[in-house]
Amino acid sequence: MTTSSKALIKQLLAIPMVVLIMMQLLFVGGCVEMKVKEPAVVYPALIIDPEVVSNLEVEDNVQFFTEGGKAPYRYTVVSGAGNIGLKSGFYTAGTTAGAVKILVQDSAGHSAYATINVISLEPYQLQINGPAEVLTSDCQEFTIHTIDKFGNNARRSDARTITLTGASLGAFYSDLNCSIALDNNQFELSEGDTDQPLYYKNNVLEGAPIEFVAATDGLSNGTHLLEMITSGVATKFYIVPISGSITVGPTGHGIQIQARDATNAVAASYSGTVRLAATGNAAVAGDGTVTITNGYGSINVSNLIAEQVTISLERTDFAEGTISDLSDTEIINFSSDVVEKVIFKTITDSTAGTPTTIEIITVDGNNNPVAHDIVVQLQFSDGNDSAEATSGSMDVSIVGGLGSIEINNNIAEVVELAIVNTGVLTYDDGGAAQSVEFFFGEIEKYVVLNHADVAVNGTANILVQAQDHFGNRVFGHSGSVSIATTGSAAVGCSGILAIVDGQSGAAACQLTDSVAETVNLVLSNPDLASGVTILENNTVAFTAGGLDHYTIEAPTTVAAGNNSAEVVIKAVDATGVNVVTSVNCNSGIVITDDSNNSSFSQGNVVTFVNGEGRVKIYNEKAETVQYTLTLPGGGSCAIAGNSSSDNTQFLAASVTNFVLLKPTDTIPNVATIVRVEARDQYGNINTFADNDTGYDIDLVDDSSDVTIVDNGIDSGIATFNVTGAVAEIVSLSMSIPGGSNVVSLSAPKLLVINDCAEEGFVYVQDGPFCISKYQMDSAGGSTKNSLPKININRADASAACVALGGHLVTNNEWQTVAREIIAVASNWSIAIGSGSVNRGHSNSLAPNSRLAASDDYSPCAGYTDSRASTAICSDSVWHVNRRTHTLKSGAIIWDFSGNTVSWVSTNRSSLTFDAAGNIAIKNILLAHTNDMANFGPGSNDSNNHNYGTLLYNGMGLEGMVRGLSWDSATETDVGIFSASVGNFDPTFAYSNVGYRCVIP
Question: pLDDT category, 44, cuts 50, 70, 90?
C-alpha cells in the first residue's frame, strides 16, 4: 500500500524555562513517523497541536513518538475508526474513510488534539443505488458510483465507459423524462467521486424481480435488484396531446389513448375499448374503436382539408366496472398542402437609381400559394455586381407564404434573378429565373471618359459621353461640347466635339505629347440648348519610356536624431528625369549605406509605388553616409545599367553638455593635453561650437603645482596644456565663465602625474617601480598610437629595456601589477571580488589583429564594431574587452591582458610548480603555495572573474609569457594572471609576442 500521509507539527505554547521544540516527519517504510525532540528539562510538558494529517488511506498507519524526553506522552482515539497504542503513538486506520480525532497527553495532564483525514482506496467496484420498487410506466432515477473494497466512496482518476444490462422489457435513459435511450446501454462515468444519475422505465408489469448489472474494465460489477409494481385501478381515459400540426393528406397521424388511475399514472393492468370521434372533415380509422392493452392504445386520424378539428371520446358497450370518465378532448390542426417550391410573384422594371420590389411566394405542386415561413436567398444569376439589395442582405424572409425584397441598380442594364436553395429547403427550388431591366435616366452631364496611359509621342483618342445622374450613357442624345488641354499636349481636333447617340466619335479628337506628364482635359461651352450644365473633366497620362536606371535623392544635411529624414528612390527612363510609373516592385531592390550607426527605420527593402520608393533613414551619429542600391538579377525591377548613389551629412544637434575626457597620464614637467568636447544629446561633437559662437569653458585644478594653458574651443573641441611640477594626482573640473552659453558639465577627471623618470611609464605603488604604460613599440619606446613590437626574442627584448635604463619585466613584477589591478574597483564589472575583470583585446573580433593604444578616454580604441561606441565602452563604462586597467596610483596601463603576449625575464626552471598541465587561475588554491605565489591572485576564489589560465607544458622550454594575446585559441584563457609556461623558446621570435620594460 502506498502511504501518502503527511504530518506537520506546530509549537503552540512554550514553558517559561528554555525549551526548544523540533517536530520532524520521517517516512519509515509505509509508516509516517512524527518526532518530538525535547530538551533535557521537560517538566512541565509542552502542549502541542499537530496540524491535520491529510490523505491517510484506510488500513494505513502513522506514528507519533518522542525522542530523548523524560515525560512520555499518551495517545487515545477520541472519535473515528482505528486504534492507537497508549504510549507508542502508533495509529492504524480502520476500513472506514473519514476524519479521526486523536487525544495527545503528557505526564502533567496537558492535552492537545490531532486530526487525521482517512481517505478511501482506489476504486474496486461499481455500485448502483436506487429504489427497490418502481411503478410500471414510471421514469425512475438511479445513481452509479465507485467504491473501494471496504465500501467507501472511491475517487476516480479518469472517466470510464459503463455498460448496463438487465433492463428486461424496459430501457435505460439519460434524461429524467425517459425520452432519450442510452446508446448500446452505455454511458460515461466521469472522473471524481460524485454520483452519476441514469434513468429506467418499464411499461410492463413483470412477475419476477429485475437485476441491473453495471460493468466496466478493471472493476467488479455493481448490481441492483428491482421489482416492478402495478399502478392503481383505471378511472379515466387520456388523449396524449399532439405538438404542432398534422399534414393534410390520406396518411394522417396516430393518436395515443391511455387508461390512467386516480394519480394520473398509466393503469398498466387495464385492457378494454373506447371510441374516438372527430369534428370537421377529419376521418378516424375504422369505426373509431380504440383497443386499450396494458393501459395503452392508438388510432389513426387523417384529413384532406387544412383546418382545425376537435377529437373526443365516446362510450362503447361498457360493462359494469368499466371507465366512465370520457371528458378528455384535444384540438388538432391540419396544415395546408406540403410546400414544393418557391417562385417569383411580381417583378417590375425600373429606372436606374430607382429601387424596385420583387415578391416571392411559397406554393404547392400546382403553384397554389401555401402559407409557410422560411428564409431563402435571391441571387443575380448572371454575375452582375452592380445591382444590390437596398437592405444590404440578399436574404428574403417569407412569412405566411409571402416575402419581398427591394433591389436597386445605378447601371442601366438587364439583371437576371434566381432563387437559391440555402440548405433549409426540403423540397425542389422550382421557379425559373426571371429578369428585371433598369433603364437609363434623363441626361444630366457631359463626361470625358477615363483613358489608359499613353506612351510619350503616342496618340490618345478622346471620348466624351452624355450621361444620366448615375453615369449611364444616354442613348439617342445629340449635341456638342468644346474641349481644351493643359501642358504640352497637342490637340488634333478643332476643339469642338459632336455628340451623336450619347457619345462623340471614336477618333473625333486625338492628343499627342512628347513630355511624360499628366494632361488635364477641360470641357467648356456646353450645348446649352440640351439643358446640360454639368461637365466632368478628366486627365490623360503620357508615361515615360522604359525603365533605364534608378536614382537616389537623399537630403543633403539632416540633424542627428531626426526620425523623419526620407530618401527617395526613383525608377527613371534614359533621360534620368521621367519617372517610370509602371514600376511597382515590392522586393528585390535593397538600399544600403556605408555606416554602422545609421538604420532604416522601416526596413531597407524598397517598395515602389508608381515608380517611386521611399525609405526613412535614422542616425544619431554626426557623419556623412553614402547610399547605394542592390538590384535584383531578374524580374520586372531588374535593369542592365548602373544606378546612382547619393550622400547625406548628419550634423550634430545643439550643444547640450561639455564632456571632460580622461587625461592621459604624464610625468613631472611634461605637459599633457586635456580635451573637452562640446556634445549634443547623442554624444556627437558639435563642430560649429567655438569661442566665436558664444561658447567658452574654463579648466580648474585642485593643485598649486599645476599650470594650465587654455588653447580655446575650435570646431567643438577645447584643449588645455596641463603641466605638473611634482608627482601627484590632480582633480580637473570645468566651469563656465560669465557670458558663455550655459550647458551641463560632465564629472571631474583625475590626472595622474607619475613619479617615473621616463615618459610612457606608470608608477606601481606595491613595487615600487615604474612599468611601461603601453606594450613596447618597434622604436623601443612606450607610446600611444604605435603598434606593439612583435617578432622579437627574449634576449633582444631584455637588451631593449636595458638601453632605457631598466630591465625586462620579471614574473614577480607581473604578479605585483596584476594584484594591484584586482584591488581597484573600476577594473571590476560590479565591485572588487564581484563580477569580472576586463580581459582586453582577446576574442579575435573586429579586427583580428594587434592594435595600437590611444588616449585613456578611448579604452576600446581600434575596435571596428559596436564596442567602439562610448555608450558601450569608455573610461567610465566597463566592458569585458576594455583594453585599460587602473593602478592604485590612479595611473592607466594599456593591454595588460590581451593584444600581444609579453615576455617575462624569469626562466621556467627557476620556479617550482604544484600542478602539471593546464589549470584555470580560479582553481589555484592557497595550498598550491608555489603556483599561488607565481601565478595566482593571492587568495582562494572559485569564481572565474576572467583571471585567465595557467597553460603548463612539460616540453622543458625555458621561456615564459604572460597576459596572452588577441588570437588565443580559447578566449577564457586570456586574463591579467594568464601565463604560458614551457611552450615558448626564449631564443625564438613569435608573431604575437612582445614585451614590457620596468625602470626601478
Answer: very low
Q: In angstroms, what CA-CA distances link 25 with 30, 82, 88, 545, 605? A: 13, 21, 16, 91, 68
What is the β-pairing status of strands 445-448 and 464-467? antiparallel
Say how far apart CA 793 and CA 801 lie, in whole Å.
13
Would 824 be classed as within a structural domain? Answer: yes
Output Rg (C-alpha) for the chain, integer angstroms. Answer: 52
CATH of residue 683's domain is 2.60.40.10
Band the pLDDT of 149: cuts 50, 70, 90: confident
- In this predicted structure, the answer to whether residue 66 has a pLDDT above a threshold of 70 is no
What is the residue type of 57? E
Exposure string over 313-328, b if 16+ CB within 10 A, otherwise e:
beeeeeeeeebeeeeb
Higher-scoring residue by pLDDT: 227, 980: 980
Length of the chain: 1000
* β-strands 53-57, 111-119 pairing: parallel
pLDDT band of 371, cuts 50, 70, 90: confident
Flag whether 76 is in a domain: yes
pTM of the model: 0.46
What is the per-residue pLDDT across 883-918, written as a single tens digit (0 to 9) for each? Answer: 999 999 999 999 999 999 999 999 999 999 887 789
158 DSSP assignment:
S
Supply the pLDDT for residue 165: 92
Kindly report the number of other CB atoms within 10 A of residue 424's CB atom: 9
Q: How far apart are CA 295 and CA 237, in angstroms?
A: 9
**DSSP letter assigned to residue 304:** S
| 252 and 279 in a common domain | yes
pLDDT at 385: 66
Asked whether the beta carbons of 444 and 467 are under 8 A apart, the reply is yes
Same domain as 894, residue 775: yes
Residues 625 and 699 in one domain: no
- Does 806 share its domain with 748? no
Last residue of a domain, one of 335, 360, 393: 335
Residues 772 and 827 in one domain: yes
CB atoms within 10 A of CB 663: 24
Locate all alpha helices (DSSP H) within 847-896, ordered by sequence: none
C-alpha span between 676 and 660 (Å, rounded): 5
Is residue 799 domain-shared with residue 904, that is, in the same domain?
yes
For residue 828, the cross-strand partners are: 837
CATH of the domain at 46: 2.60.40
What band does 27 get if pLDDT is binned at 50, 70 and 90?
very low
- Which residues, other chains included, contact 319 with Cβ-Cβ below 8 Å and sequence gap of 6+? none
HSE at residue 31, side-chain half, CA atoms within 13 A, is 13
Residue 545 region by backbone torsions, left for phi larger than 0, else alpha for psi between -120 and 50, else beta: beta
Residue 877 lies in a domain: yes
Torsion of CA 612, 617, 623, 629, to 10 degrees: -40
Nine cell digits for residue 779: 622604436
pLDDT tens for 391-432 read 878 888 888 788 888 888 888 888 888 887 655 554 444 456
pLDDT at residue 12 tops 70: no
Contacts of 383 (CB under 8 A, 6+ apart): none
Q: Does residue 38 lie in a domain region? A: yes
Nearest to 105 by CA among 48, 53, 160, 147: 48
User: Cα separation of 80 and 94, whole Å?
Assistant: 8
> Is 354 in the same domain as 310?
no
Of 702, 722, 753, the residue at which a domain comes to its end is 753
Domain count along the chain: 8
Question: Three-state SS for 128?
Answer: strand
> What's 862's DSSP letter?
T
Range of the domain at 434: 341-439
Q: What is the pLDDT of residue 242?
A: 84
Name every residue whose Cβ is closer than 8 Å to that of residue 89 and which is 6 or more positions away in sequence: 34, 63, 64, 65, 73, 75, 104
Looking at the structure, tell me whether residues 733 and 834 fall in a common domain. no
